[in-house]
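Hi R.,

Here's the chain you asked about this morning:
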Amino acid sequence: MSEITAKLVKELRDKTSAGMMDCKKALIENNGDMEKSIEWLRQKGIASAEKKSGRVAAEGAVGSYIHTGSRVGVLLELNCETDFVARGDLFQGLLRDLSMQVAACPSVEYVSVDQIPNAIANKEKEIEMGRDDLSGKPDQIKAKIVEGRIGKRLKEMALLEQPFIKDSSINVEELVKQVAGKIGENIKVRRFTRYTLGEGIEVQESDFAEEVASMTSD
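And here is the predicted structure, written out as tokens:
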């Protein structure tokens, strides 16, 4: 396999405007072949989606999904550039898929990693630094291990980083880019809310044996 250098990745990015990670993946998939990598990005709709990513997406729709049993529900806002696209089957299908994805991923709380507050990241770092398996390790090695763990943990909390539930070969971010490429408009996941039945309610559990005993003693 050809070596995938940073220079090669940058060259592909300059030609397609696709993201660095998408360019690297395209080159890996195509053994470093530039033309095939460009075709791969176009087939995925990624190249055209990146060129549109700076455009304002103020239209769209709010979708909902209620999981079987009605114990988990999701509301999700997905934005695009025109109302016409928002009413289309591709957009509505993506909206439903993303809502289902949120329902299936209870650890997901944010759209992307860069939306996670610093306070959350610092708290996770504090927890990891206190792990027993790191005691006695040099500070430099400990810091590197913690950095890797924090990166993984933050990705677990971000919707766009999740493997797509219907095709684990791509993540949610890649799915959105593919649909954006097909539609020809910028698409953005703005926000979502997950509702879990009974969440936050303190359930009072009565001691049945104690209750029976008190009744018989009267």
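One quick note: The CA atoms of residues 55 and 186 lie 6 Å apart.

Cheers,
M.
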